[in-house]
Amino acid sequence: MRIGVPKEIKNHEYRIGLTPAGARELVAAGHHVLVETQGGAAIGFDDEQYLAVGAEIVADAGVVFERSELIIKVKEPQPNECKRLRANQTLFTYLHLAPDPEQTKLLLASGATCIAYETVTGAGNSLPLLAPMSEVAGRMSIQEAALCLEKSKGGSGVLLGGVPGVEAGRVVVLGGGVVGLNAARMALGLGADVTLLDRSLARLRQIDELFDGRIKTLYSTTDAIESQLKTADAVIGAVLIPGASAPKLVTRAMLSLMKPGSVLVDVAIDQGGCFETSRPTTHQEPTYVVDGIIHYCVANMPGGVARTSTLALTNATLPFVMALANKGAEAAMRDDAHLLKGLNVYRGVLTVEAVGRAQDLHWVDPAEALQQGALQVTA
Question: Which of 46, 265, 299, 362 gets the highest tally of CB atoms within 10 A of its CB?
Answer without folding.
Answer: 265
